[in-house]
Design brief:
It contains 8 helices and 12 strands. Helix 6 links the parallel strand 7 and strand 8. The strands form 3 sheets. It has a 6-stranded mixed β-sheet with strand order 6-7-8-3-9-10, with helices on both faces. The chain has a 4-stranded antiparallel β-sheet with strand order 2-1-4-5, covered by helices on one side. Strands 11-12 form a two-stranded antiparallel ribbon. Helix 4 packs across helix 5. The longest helix is centred in the last third of the chain and has 15 residues. The structure holds adenosine-5'-triphosphate and magnesium ion (MG). Magnesium ion (MG) binds next to helix 1.
Length: about 260
């Protein structure tokens, strides 16, 4: 396969405003990316474009070697796992955890057919990878926020996507739950045949050493992109946030202070 994602000279205009402008971004196989930017910088808009829900005003998008405009988007979406907080509200509170995970196969909200033994096994194995196999048989509503995030990631992996997008997966989690989620993501990325990961966050310290590359978005344009250790510097982040900040590295992760 050629590149996982290619965004070429993308412009997206709404109400006479350029929400995204001159966006160029290439993700190659074997790379995992973090996407960072202040509120309103265009992160979700860019994800909506990569998943084919909105169309660039100008420019080109190719995902997994297929140029958008020449490919069936429903087929593409089966190869892209996407976890965002807006989905949580649509889940039936009494849905059993393993059924929620299996529903990822059909991209449906509930499960309408009896799951096969193979699907059950796959769901359990994914729940083990994400460190949430102990939640088997529990109703979704009885799980904590951190546990719910892990279940949603397992659900997104059920269809064996080539690309997994996590939009602010660490939100609303306490320090320990967030670390537990991050460790689960790290072990997922380190598995053979892991999908390419695209991790959107507001928190620099969530950027794991496994995320080889980072893209900084500012006011709809690419402020910087490249290898994570070259991007997450005090100088770059101070300029990004327009506020002096200090980056210190601990356990191969960047931590931010004012
Ligand atoms: N359909 C639309 N029409 C007009 N403006 C829009 C539309 N969609 C997004 N915007 C604007 O585009 C900008 C970027 O929004 P986007 O949701 O992509 O930001 P974001 O980086 O994901 O922010 P956050 O961190 O808050 O999630 C915002 O100013 C938003 O108001
Ligand atoms: Mg957003």
């Amino acid at each position: 396969m050629s590149n996982i994602i290619e965004v070429k000279d993308v412009l997206w205009e709404r109400e006479h405003k350029s929400i995204l402008k001159n966006v160029n971004w290439t993700i190659r196989k074997g790379e995992h990316w973090a996407l960072l930017g202040l509120n309103g910088s265009g992160k979700t808009t860019l994800l909506n474009m990569i998943t084919g829900y909105i169309w660039p005003t100008k420019g080109e998008i190719s995902v997994l070697g297929h140029q958008y405009g020449t490919v069936d988007l429903r087929e593409m979406r089966k190869r892209i796992g996407w976890v965002s907080s807006s989905f949580q509200e649509r889940i039936h509170p009494n849905e059993k955890t393993q059924h929620l995970v299996i529903s990822g196969l059909h991209a449906s909200v509930g499960l309408f057919e009896q799951p096969t033994e193979d699907h059950m096994q796959k769901a359990v194995s994914l729940m083990e990878t994400l460190g949430c196999a102990h939640l088997l048989d529990r109703p979704y509503q009885t799980c904590s926020q951190g546990e719910k995030q892990k279940l949603l990631i397992a659900r997104a992996l059920m269809a064996s996507p080539d690309l997994l997008i996590l939009d602010e997966a660490g939100n609303g989690l306490d320090f320990l739950s967030r670390e537990s989620l991050l460790q689960s993501i790290a072990s997922l990325v380190n598995q053979k045949d892991a999908p390419t990961l695209l991790y959107v966050t507001h928190h620099v310290e969530e950027i794991l050493p496994e995320f080889t590359h980072s893209l900084l978005l500012r006011k709809g344009t690419v402020f910087a992109s490249g290898k994570t250790e070259e991007i997450l510097t005090s100088e770059q982040l101070s300029a990004l946030f327009e506020t002096p900040v200090q980056v210190s590295w601990k356990n191969n992760r960047a931590w931010l202070s004012l």
